[in-house]
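Q: I have 732 residues here and want to know how they pack in 3D. Can you give me a structure?
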Amino acid sequence: MAAVPLARRGLVLVADDDPVMRVLMLEMLGQVGLDTVEAEDGEQALACFRRIQPDLVMLDVEMPGMDGLAVCRAIRQQEQHATVPIIMVTGADELASVTSAYEAGATDFVSKPINWPILGHRVLYVLRASDAISRLRLADAQHRAVMAAIPDTFFRMNRDGYYLDYEQGHEASGVFASERCVGQHLQQVLPEAIARQMLAQVHSVLASQHVGSLDYALPQHGIARARAGEHAVAAPVRHFEARLVATGPDEVLGLVRDISERKRNEEQIRRLAYCDSLTGIPNRQAFLETLEAELRRSRKDKHKFAVLFMDLDAFKRINDTLGHDVGDHLLKAVSERLRETIRPSDLVSRTEADDSNLARLGGDEFTILIPDLERVDDALAVAQRVKDAMCRPFQLGSHEIFVTASIGISLYPDDGEDCSSLLKFADTAMYHAKNCGKNNAKMYSSSLTMQIMSHVQLEVGLRKALQNQELYLLYQPQIDVSSATIVSVEALVRWRHPERGIISPTEFIPLAEETGLIVPIGEWVLRTACQQARQWQISDDRPLRIAVNLSAKQFKDENLSQIVLSALQDSGMPAELLELELTEGTLMDDARATMQTLERLRAIGVYLAIDDFGTGYSSMSYLKRFNVSALKIDRSFITGLPQDSENAAITRAIIAMAHGLKLNVVAEGVETNEQLRMLEQCGCDMVQGYYLGHPSPPENIALMLAQRPVLDGSDDNASGDSSVSGKFPEQH
């Protein structure tokens, strides 16, 4: 029989007191490629074993002194890890002798007389078997280490749902004990509903021979109560994923993994994706998905629903004056108040609390979904409740804040049948509510879309107006009351639209303010007016002041002083002949920034005036601080003079106050001789209005400048009337 070579030569320790037996054993073992070491007795064999650590030991049982069984026991006692194979050579083959050998720790035995031709091969195969056993032990140890490190639970289960084996992973500790599961049915271990799903999955896997999976959740404590159908109150829930694979016609192998951490991460990701980070309520994406689901449900059930679009009025003012931190706290408080105000059970027929009906789209914009709408009045009632809730003061630390809300409402299916349209139309209705005075709720109507389209078209046209030279200036004179001469001219911008003709400033100026176009338009007005005024000054050879209105956006532009300087330098206009008019609201918006801007303008040397005085704050303390040169009394106080006693009293007071502060006074909107006569009596410095001159093109102003009206000895003067009205040619 051919010997099968080992990967390396093995070392065998042979111990026998018979020298002939040792020689024969060494010869036979050498023939199969094994190295040998011999010992004459038991003590020598044990010492040699300790010294050379052989791969196999052959011991004669009958040796003087320390026999083979004693040596075998001694070797086994001193072994720590690997088990060396030991073959006992015995002269007796009775069962008792063999039993003694195995009890001493022998691996195999050889009976005398020895079959010498096969001895070497027998030893060789014992070595190989020992090597295989060592490998199995190592593999088993590694397998156990791996199993101990794996957090998953493994089980085998038959077709009927009985656990055949159960190896619990370390992360599943405290859920089910292995000894409790083996031999048990699914329904004895898991809650009934989960057990039914698991058994159905077992049958599916056995039928298809494909991998199957099942997710389920169990309370961390109170498993027995959960299995019995009871709810473990406030018990933390653990989530598991079971994956099943068929290992035979009637048996599956299952792997159960605790996915609680994954579920928590998924929930966190969902919160980040669908919750507003500031307020904690649903965000735009969550609301759109809720709206889409409601659309499908309402189409199927033929129900109506409403979308409310709410925007806080003047929220930017709170951010600008109190800071963004206060603004953020306000948004949180608004969200909480909305949540309380629009509880679903209060809205309509639904009773479950569903925060997804409320969302923050961004900034100070919120949306509310009202499902199962029976009447339009229900939506209006909710909007009214929201408005009332917003009107109550918000106490944020030391700040008591008052806000109002504008709300737009769109209806399904009346106004639209898709999410985009319903949200857009509700937004449109909200802007209509703002335009109607704010703190309003308005329903959407198709006419609003036409208005919006017209608004958009007007904006597009206005953006092209400058480059297409559609804007032009008219000028209205300001007359000095004492000399009856033109001392100043106000520049007024007009727009000649190529299709719509002349568009009123009341229509396009607010649009320019809203879009920011007022800044480039204002700069064009300033430059054009300065150039025109310089031409009049040169041709008429007298100091004529030009007045230009500044919008709030222009006044806040950090480049304003550079723009003014550039316009003056390019036109050659003296700075003191440029009058910049600002409204009270513009000056009062940010007092500190206003003072800095006014200082820069005064340093240039321009003439500063407050326009429309009396319609805003009218604060004397700020008038002193702002150090302007003139006040322009708003036309609303001139209307009705001299018959309107209240307006007359206000006008007298403004003039007296202004003179007390050494300010010039200009009265706007003078349209009758009686108004002019009264203003003269009150001591008004300058007047402006249709009675004295309509807004006119430059050539008309040039003619008026040439007239220079003086006292002409008319019948009025002959009769002793020396009033200022006699100095002016009547305007038609």
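Q: Anything worth noting?
A: The chain has 29 helices and 26 strands. Residues 359 and 714 are 75 Å apart (CA to CA).
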